[in-house]
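User: Quick sanity check before I run a bigger batch. Here is a single chain. Can you write out its predicted 3D structure?
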Amino acid sequence: LIDELIQSPGYDSQMFNWWADLLRLKSRMRGGNQIQAGQLYNHWVKETIQTNTPYDEMVYSMITAEGYPWENGAVGYYLRDTGMPLDNMSNTAQVFLGTQMVCAQCHNHPFDKWTQMEYYKMASFTYGIETRMGKEKYAEIRSFFQKDNQNLSPQAKKKKAQSKEAQSLRKAIGEMMKPLQYGARQTTRKLALPHDYRYKDAKPKSFVSSEPIFAVDHLNAELENPVHAYGKWMISPENPRFTKVIANRMWKKVFGRGIIEPVDDFKDDSEASIPDLLIHLESLMVRVSYDLKEFQRILHNVEAFER
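Assistant: Done. Predicted structure follows.
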């Protein structure tokens, strides 16, 4: 029965609802004209569930997403928080690392070890991701249609710009550009500390370098694409919280309560109710190669679930 149900459309449906809550999915995202982008992101999530994409691959795809929504639905991960790159990092840490850093955006965390500097160093990995696109293309198109105006007098240019034909043309260009306004692309934009930064380790408005909160030896953002390096670090089995957090989330999904609670607020002194079980679940998650369907099939077959 478990095998039959887990291969049914019902499994895909309830997993989509689970992901929709976790990723805060919306059909209409910020920006007004992003209905299509929201739907394409939702569709991408549904596809990853239907194809049973491994969890680590899914996360990596979202973290490193580039392009337009119709090319790569995963860019919806950044479009969901467009204009809020610092908040996007907070959400990433909370969802995938079970670590709440949001308080450290404005000051050193009052209830955890994270500093404001560490927050900004983490955020700098993806701060360069731009979600508003098409500006250059829009300027290029307008320039093309304005070629004929070069020899006109200022008065003639003004009169032509106010004509019905010019208004219709601008409207047509605007409609053409709507789908090209939103996507995700990596830029070299640097992140600077806020103007009111008050700690002694750096001056306000100084640029920060990218650095993860948990050290991993193989991470070297300077030798490769920093966003890809960040993505590899995020999903690495060596990352002390990535595997632990998803194993704990899956246990809670099946049994109703996490071995560590809350499931999205891990601290160094967080205690597991059954430490050996959580260690075992971490190794199991790696052993099944982050296959969430297989992981849940195993949990539903254990004697504890039967009881």
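The first helix runs from residue 2 to 6.

User: Great, the batch can go ahead then.
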